[in-house]
């Protein structure tokens, strides 16, 4: 479910990319810390609940600190989103970069039966990143206008 949440986000952003870019740019470029923190809390709660589900489901070790892991996943996703908002990468690249980062982090806390699947996800994302790098996106005019 953790990876699907990223893909779902990409789907939403893809529906109205100009709108989401403008909102995210406004919030994080000119909104104050108190405004930005109103977005952070719910985001962390979402990632924490997904991590807790993965632990309960036996995908991740019970040793996993759900708060620390959720904060890491949130930061990874957010960094990719900001790269997309600024026009540095496409939505497909945003999704692949996030999946790659997630797989790398989650692999370290995965239970043995699920490590192979995560390693496959890492290698798949590496291959996609290589292909996407060869087709780099130039910043759009829309982003330059923001």
What does this structure look like?
By secondary structure, the chain is mainly alpha-helical. It has one domain. 81% of the residues lie in helices and 0% in strands. The chain contains 7 helices and no strands. The longest helix is centred in the N-terminal third of the chain and has 24 residues. The radius of gyration is 16 Å and the shape is globular. The termini are far apart. The C terminus is likely disordered.
Kindly list the characteristics that best describe this protein.
146 residues; 81% helix; mainly alpha; disordered C terminus
Give a quick rundown of the structure.
This protein has helices at 2-15, 17-29, 33-56, 66-85, 91-109, 112-134, 141-145. With 146 residues, it is mainly alpha-helical.
Mean pLDDT across the residues is 86
Total number of helices: 7
Distance between the termini: 33 Å
Which bin fits the share of residues in helices?
over 70%
Helix and strand content put the structural class at: mainly alpha
Give the number of domains. 1
Number of strands: 0
Low-confidence parts: 141-146
């Amino acid at each position: 479910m953790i990876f699907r949440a990223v893909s779902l986000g990409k789907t939403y952003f893809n529906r109205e990319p100009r709108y989401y870019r403008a909102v995210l740019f406004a919030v994080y470029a000119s909104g104050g810390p108190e405004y930005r923190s109103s977005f952070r809390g719910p985001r962390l709660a979402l990632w924490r609940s997904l991590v807790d589900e993965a632990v309960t489901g036996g995908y991740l070790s019970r040793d996993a600190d759900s708060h620390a892991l959720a904060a890491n996943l949130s930061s990874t996703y957010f960094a990719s989103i900001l790269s997309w908002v600024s026009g540095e990468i496409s939505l497909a690249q945003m999704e692949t970069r996030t999946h790659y980062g997630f797989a790398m982090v989650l692999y370290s806390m995965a239970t043995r039966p699920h490590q192979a699947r995560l390693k496959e996800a890492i290698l798949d994302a590496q291959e996609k990143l290589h292909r996407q790098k060869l087709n780099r996106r130039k910043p759009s005019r829309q982003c330059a206008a923001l």
